[in-house]
Write a structure and sequence with these properties.
six-stranded mixed β-sheet; about 350 residues; five-stranded antiparallel β-sheet; Rossmann fold; OB fold (Dihydrolipoamide Acetyltransferase, E2P); about 35% strand; alpha+beta
């Protein structure tokens, strides 16, 4: 696939002798795909997005969009649109005028403007809303207007900066699905910033996890979730418990009394294992190899959350078997599914 965005040895310092906010990073966003920049506050992901947009200039390195060097170009020269966290709609303008604003500034003719605004509103499901005011719309509808305003400019690259953080949980799920569907349907090149790993997993072709201005790991959602390369990535990509284990002479992973063969060949010795809550199997005493005792049980409709005491420590377990309610102090046993557990190789 052709590259849509390329970062080559990019650094960024906000002062001439200050610390680096971004430290020599390299990555590519393939054209027509969505890449999420994921990480905790202060990791450099928003600075990276702003450098793509042309709102910040790199201290060193090269930025390319659709094969062209844009490192020294202004934001207006880059053919990039940014959807802000706050929507940034003009409250004194109608929805039509909000969406048409960029076209008006660019001097687009009235006939073309009408057609492109109507098309953009239709794309985000807001046909007929042009005469309304931002204050008359829900949060989700305002987010769609902000998206239409970005799309109407027909950008080479579309950028999202925490676009769903102001929405409630149900609307967040709906909007992330709509953004992903729109990106795939229009084959948009998208860079998307969030700190929410479930949001990143839901929308991304590629996820770049950042830490302290560097790339901790990049890959597909499955790569990062199932094959984290460090304790940091394992912990950040969902709720993973890091446990000490051993690789036996036969190449098996030994975690307490549990043993299984990983998908990769590793030398004998100590390792760490990242175990997701859903990786555990809960059974009757003696059914699996590891005895455990229920400390806490929480019913959540479609599954139970358990806190269990075991010989390897206190474990958090998600169990889908809601027909088997287990009470505190009840004895159980633990095994493992094949998915949701990985050896962390640093």
């Amino acid at each position: 696939m052709k590259p849509g965005i390329e970062f080559k040895d990019i650094t960024k310092a906000y002062a001439s002798k200050g610390p680096l906010a971004v430290k020599g990073i390299n990555f590519t966003v393939p054209k027509g795909t969505l890449t999420t920049l994921l990480g905790p506050s202060g990791c450099g992901k928003t600075t990276t997005l702003r450098m793509i947009a042309g709102l910040e200039s790199p201290t060193s390195g090269q930025i390319r969009i659709d094969g062209a060097d844009v490192t020294t170009l202004s934001a207006a020269e880059r053919h990039v649109s940014l959807v802000f966290q706050s929507y940034a709609l003009f409250p004194h303008m109608t929805i039509f005028d909000n969406v048409a604003y960029g076209l008006a500034v660019a001097g687009v003719g009235r006939a073309s403007m009408l057609q492109r605004v109507d098309s953009a509103l239709a794309t985000v499901g807001l046909t007929g809303y042009g005469a309304r005011w931002p204050g008359e719309l829900s949060g989700g509808q305002q987010q769609r207007v902000a998206l239409a305003r970005a799309l109407v400019l027909e950008p080479a690259v579309l950028l999202f900066d925490e676009p769903l953080s102001n929405l409630d949980a149900r609307l967040r799920r709906q909007m992330r699905d709509e953004i992903r569907s729109l990106q795939q349907r229009l084959q948009l090149t998208v860079a998307y910033v969030t700190h929410d790993q479930s949001e990143a997993l839901a929308v991304s072709d590629q996820i770049i996890v950042m830490r302290d201005g560097k790339i901790a790991q990049a890959g597909s959602p499955a790569d990062l979730y199932e094959r984290p390369n460090s304790e940091f990535v394992a912990g950040f990509m969902g709720e993973a418990l890091l446990l000490p284990a051993r690789i036996s002479d036969a190449g098996a992973v030994q975690l307490g009394p549990l043993e299984w063969h990983p998908n990769l060949s590793l030398p004998p010795g100590p390792v760490q294992v990242a175990v997701r809550p859903e990786a555990w199997r809960v059974g009757e005493p003696g059914e699996f190899a590891m005895p455990a005792t229920v400390l806490k049980a929480t019913y959540l409709g479609g599954f139970y959350e358990y806190t269990l005491a075991s010989e390897i420590g206190e474990l958090f377990v998600v169990c889908p078997h809601v027909d088997r309610q287990r009470q505190p102090q009840q004895a159980v046993s633990l095994g493992m599914h094949g998915r949701g557990v990985s050896v962390v190789v640093n």
